């Protein structure tokens, strides 16, 4: 193999491909990145057997070939090389890298020992702007369950059941809170052919690590994202990269049942004010079950308080527009902070119930994202 | 105690006083900060029995008093309060904090349980610009010994023996490398009276943690620093703060003996080029005794290389102006990087010897800082 490409492109590729974390210590080759020339130039690939990331960069191929090299070492070298052309050449299992006065030789491992990436022939069923999908994923990430006792909620549900009504829904929950984001899709970006192939498949569950990888890698601006689903795999293609991931098997809970329809009180509050008051309450909550108490009263004030015996207590009164009856309700401050941090806009609506039913928070301006939170019972 | 001051001032004070790390788990009150009203306003103090930091902020005292509160909790609250006036009031051992809708009560501990800060009556013997002293300390920090087997080199030597020639010297070493920074002082900033009191004391050793604290806290611009030495203590007064520290006892090695006078070869190299080449070599050095090999040759090139068996090797040729004979010498890349990172300016002079004598690096433009490094023997 012999190829010439630029340091800048290699570095960008490795910043994406090199982030796939290998949890598999029994297969050390997974700590390597696969380099492979093809018609377009150089393909860099990395996998941990759950996710595979491929990235293509342009280059002048002088001799076809493939090899794997230790990812971290290779990425460290490349990122410290000066900008300009980099020549990569293999001689048996040695990889020679030349760039502007630097010569580096790294011992590689035969590419045939690298696990094959599954080939997916299915057609993309959906095109969506990368940046919109990225922001949506980042809003639902915090509520993904971290407990492995119920694997089906350790990922994000991608609900396609209303795709014919031009919307898809992303959902996450850990049973204490639930985040739901609805995205509009344009009919011309939905492939009818692909949908027919999917048939009865109305939703898939994307693992947390894949969601995190997407949030890291998806671009902004005009970049479009293609999504392909095929059996137990999902593929995201964007820019010069694709990410291929297994799906989580199992039945996601029926989240629509959880969304409350009636509320006892409703408060419209400045996001900065409530976030700050909840954060301050958190300093005492940590030693008392994380609880922060809300008091919604007819005088258009929300009183937010917390207490830690032997340490102290605090209390903040903030302005709000309140309708409904006076209400006292206790939340987990961490869960509340996660929800508030996902709100886009200056004002948040808190649709609240007492300790027996969940509350909902959403942006005043944009109800495509709702965050449902269970109160702490007294 | 009752005082009104601003959130901004309190926050600034706590960002300095709150950084003193308590290593003493048997005296939990050291995790608290002492609040004490005085004529000027509020004094905040913190100590770990090695260093004491005091900071004064202006305020409107309505009732004199003093109390201690948990530093981290108090600092967290203050930093999250909105800008504006903060009222601090004690009621027995409870501290009430009020600010713009927020009410916080923290349980405090009687100030009489807090260790007394020693009073120092001595006169400052030296005034120097804070930013100059700060930069000088940051240049010598990396070479301070971390091994506790020789306590006398676990700090920075402040050598006053040439203060009458209007210079002081800061020195650090871990016996593998030595950093020496000479600072000019103006005669009008040296107190003859204080020097007489010091008498035969020609140098003191300032503990590493105090040096780190100073580098963090010293200001920039026109701020001046006063230094007071008294028996086993040193006091640094600057802005609204003072830092009081114990000194390290013991005899610092005679560093002047170590500075080599003769060199076999001399290279003038671009700092960015050499730093990058050494950093790249470091990726292989890590698994081979941290060694990086320098080859100075008559063709005005420095060749920097490293090797790790079973992993690979690398080699960089960079331009240099070389005089003297061809020379091969091996350094510890970490020690070399520390020295290069402390060089101010675009070009570095490497005065090199073979494996039997130390090399010296310094800036082409400024020889007030020199960094001596022992080669690794083959």
> In DSSP terms, counting alpha (H) and pi (I) runs of 4 or more, how many helices of chain A?
7
User: Which residue ranges of chain A are poorly predicted, with pLDDT under 50 across at least 5 consecutive positions?
Assistant: none
CATH architecture assignment of the largest domain in chain A: Roll
Neighbour order of strands in the largest sheet of chain A: 14-11-12-13-26-25-24-18-22
Question: What's a quick, concise take on this entry?
Answer:
In chain A, 19% of the residues lie in helices and 42% in strands.
Please characterize this protein's 3D structure.
2 copies of one chain form a homodimer. Chain A folds into 3 domains: 2-113, DNA Polymerase III, subunit A, domain 2 (DNA Polymerase III, Chain A, domain 2); 126-256, DNA Polymerase III, subunit A, domain 2 (DNA Polymerase III, Chain A, domain 2, Roll); 259-373, DNA Polymerase III, Chain A, domain 2, CATH 3.10.150.10. In chain A, the strands form 4 sheets. In chain A, strands 14-11-12-13-26-25-24-18-22 form a 9-stranded antiparallel sheet. The radius of gyration of chain A is 25 Å and the shape is elongated. Chain A is built from 7 helices and 26 strands. The first copy, chain A, has 378 residues and is an alpha+beta fold. Chain A binds chain B through residues 70, 73, 76-77, 80-82, 94, 101-107, 276-277, 279-280, 283, 310-318, and chain B through 70, 73, 76-77, 80-82, 94-95, 101-107, 276-277, 279-280, 283, 310-318.
